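Notes from the 1:1 (GR / supervisor)

We went over the backlog. Supervisor wanted to see one worked example end to end before approving the batch request, so GR pasted a single chain during the call. The sequence is below; no edits were made to it. Supervisor asked that the structure be written out right there so they could see what the output format looks like.
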Amino acid sequence: MRKMLVLCLLVPFIGFSQAKLVLNGTRIFPRQDKIAEFEKALASHAQKYHTGDWKWRVWEIQSGPDAGGYLVTEGPTSWEQVDGRNDLGAEHTEDYTKNVAPLTIDRGGSEYLEFQTDLSTVALTDYADKIVINHSNIKPGKIANAPDLLKKWKAAWQAGNESVAVYMKVASGNPGFVTVTRLKAGLKELATGYRKPMKDRFPTTGDGTYEAFSKEYIEVVESRWSELLIYKPELSSKQ
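Structure output shown during the call:
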């Protein structure tokens, strides 16, 4: 009877516990003459102060407008956890300010992303060491149309056996979504002929055709850009 009472008391907490679907992504750009020192300081900071739910995964940006920079992703956590995190402590702040920040240039940014389980073809934590990130900005008034567009895109990803994680941007600049293609087989997945072209993976009839998708894409998406990133485990959190 006592065990049953304890379980009943826990029900509200279980019911209202939020799923851990939130990632924070921060872009950092090192001084070109201090890259080795920067990597050493960043790794030390990550492994000392960012563990558990706040662990860091560090990526080197290989191409695109941010090539030469590093992407630090933190999480996944829930909004509830983010809200209750509070101050990270003087020791943490001092370590970053004294050891990491002086080795960087005044450029970068941060954003919050929420993983979309039903629109993705891969689990949130089913990672790969090489990824292609596509950033899409949505036209004003069209954000509600994004999920329907992505559902059609998901069918084509599945037809091509692509591992794609979908995130929605939250309170982070222009409304939009981010798709992360996880290259499980490595960079050879980018080669022409590795899989069927995208247009050949859509149905040939009905409203799910490539032509219908393209028309909807033009109506919903304002701009898009891509980049290739490589995971750097030696710079990331160890637990």
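Supervisor's comment: The helical segments are 2-16, 35-49, 79-83, 90-100, 146-159, 210-220.
Batch request approved.
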